[in-house]
Amino acid sequence: MLLFFHFFITIISAAKLTTTNSSFSMSFPLTTHSLSTNATAKMLSSSLMFSSRNTKAPPSSSSSYNLRSTFKYSMVLIVTLPIGTPPQAQQMILDTGSQLSWIQCHNKKAVKPPPPPPTPSFDPSLSSTFSVLPCTHPLCKPQIPDFTLPTSCDQNRLCHYSYFYADGSYAEGNLVREKLTFAPTHSTPPLILGCATYSSDARGILGINRGRLSFSSQAKINKFSYCVPPRQDQPGRAPTGSFYLGNNPHSTGFKYIPMLTFLQSQRMPNLDPLAYTVAMNGIRIGGKRLNISPAVFRPDAGGSGQTMVDSGSEFTYLVSEAYDKVREEVVRIVGRRMKKEYVYGGVADMCFDGRDAGVEIGRLIGEMVFEFEKGVEIVVPKERVLADVGGGVHCIGIGSSDKLGAASNIIGNFHQQNLWVEFDLTNRRVGFGGADCSRLG
User: Which of 132, 163, 399, 420 could be stapled to 347 by a disulfide with Cβ–Cβ 3.0 to 4.6 Å?
Assistant: First the structure.
């Protein structure tokens, strides 16, 4: 997961993924900044558009609306979704590394309502389709095989949850059922969500990993994709990309790699079996292939080393065997320019001073390439090798998994810029396709 850096949460699971074909086909622009303006139901109703190929079957749908903000430092992907009946616009972080989806809740009609969050929150009293899970619900009992969510029974005999992420952020509230209502005739079935009354983030989470309680599984979405626009360092610029649920009209040229899946019998202590795991083969910097064994990018007997594609992580993180080789090559090329004894966010220590360092150092290092199976590559141009982290400092967009406290390689959204990333759940594959994502919104 998320915030200014990733910080993935591992909801350990052993269940095999079962996917169901969906007739939904929707698109939502997303922004790489936090939102400061109030989204309204009027905005949703005027911007969501649907089309149907067969009026007797559940119709496919297409919707489009633009959301922008000026949150300079964040690289999380914010979508605004219509929750409830009638719909209330809710800001959620798109996170392929999490299972539970949750929204900010604030019941304004409560006798003693808690302080409202700083962004528009969901008011359960205004929705006719809202319901709270009772303590007797199976999810409120311990030892659910693929959902190790800490739950308890609150004083009202309702199912209470507490969710903690590796970065120290948290959310707690009640587990509920609610619909996403895109139009009077277009809605999801009731989904199990978290209704957070206390959290450390002003926005909710759209958990969309491979777990049975993720948004994609509950809503029976068989495919989704997004295109992250280039990060803009100029204040006031709010790049917008696109997020598709269902078929993507741009997918003709996508190149696919298999998604690694794990059975219940393969449960390992350091493995996240619900992540979108792929087999990475190597890394090139400036045309030079680093001496890293492909085994470093695959889970070992204990699960360490898996490589996952995570929209909720800003930077990419590498285990020590790979990170040390990358750092060694960067030091060889530009070591004398490196900022001494500086570690950004506690995880990234390949940083440089100077407003023009991103261009200058990037030019010296050259492009960076992540190699996968079947000749598929993620090519990071030299102009986007470094990230502006503020204060005139630029850092290579790669952090140490060890410093993060993780045992995995994580491909973050910083290295997914100008790239379509498609998660095909039916065919268990991940697709990539180059694009100018800033022009698609």
Answer: 399
State yes or no: is 388 an active-site residue. no
Angle subtended at Cα 161 by Cα 158 and Cα 165, rounded to the nearest 5 degrees: 170
Given 167, 310, 388, 424, the catalytic residue? 310
Tell me whether residue 201 is one of the annotated catalytic residues: no
- Indicate the SS3 state at residue 404: helix
Amino acid letter, 78: I
Check residue 238 and give its pLDDT.
60
Which fold is adopted by the domain 67-221? Cathepsin D, subunit A; domain 1 (2.40.70)
- Distances from the Cα of 331 to the Cαs of 334, 336, 339, 349, 364, in angstroms? 5, 7, 11, 11, 11
Structure tokens at 32: 């790489």
Half-sphere exposure of 428 (CA within 13 A, CB side): 13
The topology under which CATH files domain 255-434 is: Cathepsin D, subunit A; domain 1 (2.40.70)
Highest mean pLDDT among 61-65, 195-199, 278-282, 310-314: 278-282
Q: pTM to 2 decimals?
A: 0.83
Q: Which of 218, 194, 208, 180 is nearest to 132 (CA)?
A: 194
State the burial class of residue 199 (Cβ atoms within 10 Å of its Cβ: 0-12, 13-18, 19+): buried
Which one is catalytic: 95, 167, 201, 388?
95
Residues near 328 by Cβ (< 8 Å), separated by ≥ 6?
Answer: none
Residue 36 near residue 118 (C-beta atoms within 8 A): no
